[in-house]
From TrEMBL:
Protein name listed in UniProt: Large ribosomal subunit protein bL21
Pfam family, one: Ribosomal_L21p
Protein's UniProt keywords contain Ribonucleoprotein: yes
Top-level taxon: Bacteria
Subunit composition and interactions: Part of the 50S ribosomal subunit. Contacts protein L20.
Role description: This protein binds to 23S rRNA in the presence of protein L20.
Molecular-function GO term, any one: rRNA binding
Species in which this protein is naturally found: Edaphobacter paludis
Keywords, ordered alphabetically: Ribonucleoprotein, Ribosomal protein, RNA-binding, rRNA-binding
GO cellular component, one term: cytoplasm
One annotated GO biological process: translation
Family, per entry: Belongs to the bacterial ribosomal protein bL21 family.
Length: 110
């Protein structure tokens, strides 16, 4: 069981129990609800046709900033050099539940 969600301009394939780092989003009480669902698959190779009311529920594990990415610009023979660093903010979430058509899929106990 998995779903494809869209958040922060990117798409992620998620299943109950997965942990992932996404772009910073608003969250309240440590939970996030994703309602922009691209696809849901209950079995391998089969996708659900009706996605209205589908949502993915996740809990926030933490927030942080990613590794520094250096941006270096150079124009040869013009004495122009520019170095700039960037660290992207992220929220780490754990997918708890996928809901659609009155069904609910949670992480299987191990």
């Amino acid at each position: 069981m998995y779903a494809v969600i869209r958040t922060g301009g990117k798409q992620y394939r998620v299943a109950p129990g997965d942990k992932l780092k996404i772009e910073t989003t608003a969250h309240e009480n440590g939970t996030v609800e994703f309602s922009d669902i691209v696809a849901i698959s209950g079995e391998a190779g089969k996708f659900e046709s009706e996605l209205s009311g589908a949502k993915v529920l996740a809990s926030v594990l933490g927030e942080g900033r990613g590794d520094k990415i250096l941006v270096f610009k150079l124009k040869r023979k013009k004495q122009y050099k520019k170095m700039q660093g960037h660290r992207q903010n992220f929220v780490e979430v754990k997918i708890n539940e996928i809901q659609f058509n009155g069904k609910s899929f949670k992480e299987e106990a191990k």
